[in-house]
Spermidine synthase (Rugamonas brunnea), 262 residues
Amino acid sequence: MKPAVSPTTASTGLRFDQPGHPPATITEFQGVRSLHLGTSWVQGAMRLSRPDAIELEYVQMMMMWLLFVQRPRHVVQLGLGSAALTKFCYRRLPGTRVTAIELNPNVIAICRSLFGLPDNDDRLQVREMNALDFVLDPANHGTVDALQVDLYDEEARGPVLDTPEFYQGCYDCLSEDGVMTTNVFGEFSNYDKNLLAMEQVFDAVVWLPEVHDANIVVIAFKHAPVLDFSVLYERAGAIKKELNLPAKSWVNGLKAWMRDHQ
């Protein structure tokens, strides 16, 4: 998920370090600002010349639910990172309510200060809380059209929430045709553990080919869709035109997965 920072990357020395949580720090290199949690692992990135764009390829891929959910009413992000997904959904999907759940107040503070995260309003809610508490709360069940999960601590060994109980909560939060995307990264054993936990809960689970630094993005469906690739390529073209996201590569990845898992 998070490539280690290059030794030639410049550190700014800025820290957000409210006690009780890992500190949030940044580095900058070749016009890209990266977020760290007191270690070399990159937790998110923003190109300074394009602050509302999604810089990292795997983070772009987390938006592939757009192939299946065209008019989301409510998008939820578990794990704020550098706020790339939260900002993108808020800015580019004007009819959508966006919620981000983040446990570390230092991450929220640095995103507001240095990554252009807007203040909360009637469409945007960034909440400081545990993602497990959010997904287990019955008040949130059935309310989320697209759920994006990217939950890592400062060591980045694997998702910090990876149990069937957690993924059942994610499933329960989804609306009838809801979709979850999640990033699985870290030690090798984490891949099978997370995929098996998701497969126990969701109707269909598909993962795309590995992108840089061992990131694998998984898409999980509350109810398995019928995949018509001509329709998906048409939608991918519209996503590229409207949002400038490389959606054709997502469809290619889905097609390759179907071919390999027949």
In short: The two ends are 28 Å apart (CA to CA). The helical segments are 57-61, 84-92, 105-114, 131-136, 164-173, 188-201, 229-243, 247-260. The chain has a mean pLDDT of 88. The domain at 57-261 is CATH 3.40.50.150 (Rossmann fold).
